[in-house]
């Protein structure tokens, strides 16, 4: 009976490991987009404060894009 519990725990652990890595590609795409946006916004800045604001914009630009698309489509 203990072996059954041990095997069940191993199966749960294996399933948990698979579940963690399922969406890894989208994280990479978002990471590359963040780096690109950060570089763009920092290059456009003249002061340190504008550079910090550029980093913040780089974090939230996907949300701003979706909002603009929805308002344009009047959704």
Topology as a string of helices (H) and strands (E) = HHH
SSE-based structural type: mainly alpha
As a whole number of angstroms, the C-alpha radius of gyration is: 21 Å
Mean of pLDDT = 80
* Percent range of helical residues: over 70%
Approximate strand percentage:
under 5%
Total number of helical segments? 3
Shape: flat
Distance between the termini: 57 Å
Low-confidence sequence ranges: none
> What is the number of independent domains?
1
E-strand count: 0
What is the quaternary state of this protein? single chain
Quick recap:
The chain has 75 residues and is mainly α. It is built from three helices and no strands. The protein has one domain.
Task: Outline the structure in words.
- The protein has 75 residues and is mainly α.
- It has one domain (2-73).
- Helix content is 88%, strand content 0%.
- It contains 3 helices and no strands.
- The protein has helices at 2-20, 24-44, 48-73.
- Helix 2 (24-44) packs across helix 3 (48-73).
- The protein is flat.
- The mean pLDDT is 80.
